[in-house]
Design goal:
single chain; 75 residues; mainly alpha; 4 helices; transposase activity; Transposase_8; Transposase_8_domain
C-alpha cells in the first residue's frame, strides 16, 4: 500500500478548515488534493481529534507490521 504524503495532523487541519467556513474547493486547491480525497478523508476520520487519528494510525501501522512479519515467515 502506498504511503501517504500527508501526516495525520495535516489531514486533521485540512478537515477542520471547512468547519471554520472555508469553501471545500478552496481548501482542496490550497492543500493540493482532489475533492474526492477530501471526502474520503472526511468519511474515514469523521469526528476524530488529532490525538485519536494518531492512535488510529499507530494501530494500523502495528497491524501492517504484524501481517508483514507473518508473511515473511511463511515464505
Amino acid at each position: 500500500m502506498k504511503a501517504g504524503k500527508f501526516s495525520d495532523a495535516q489531514i486533521a487541519f485540512v478537515l477542520k478548515q471547512p468547519e471554520d467556513g472555508t469553501p471545500i474547493g478552496e481548501v482542496c486547491r490550497k492543500a493540493g488534493i482532489a475533492e474526492s480525497t477530501f471526502y474520503g478523508w472526511r468519511k474515514r476520520f469523521a469526528g476524530l481529534m488529532p490525538s485519536e487519528v494518531k492512535r488510529l494510525v499507530a494501530d494500523l501501522s502495528l497491524d501492517k507490521a504484524m501481517l508483514q512479519d507473518v508473511l515473511s515467515k511463511k515464505l
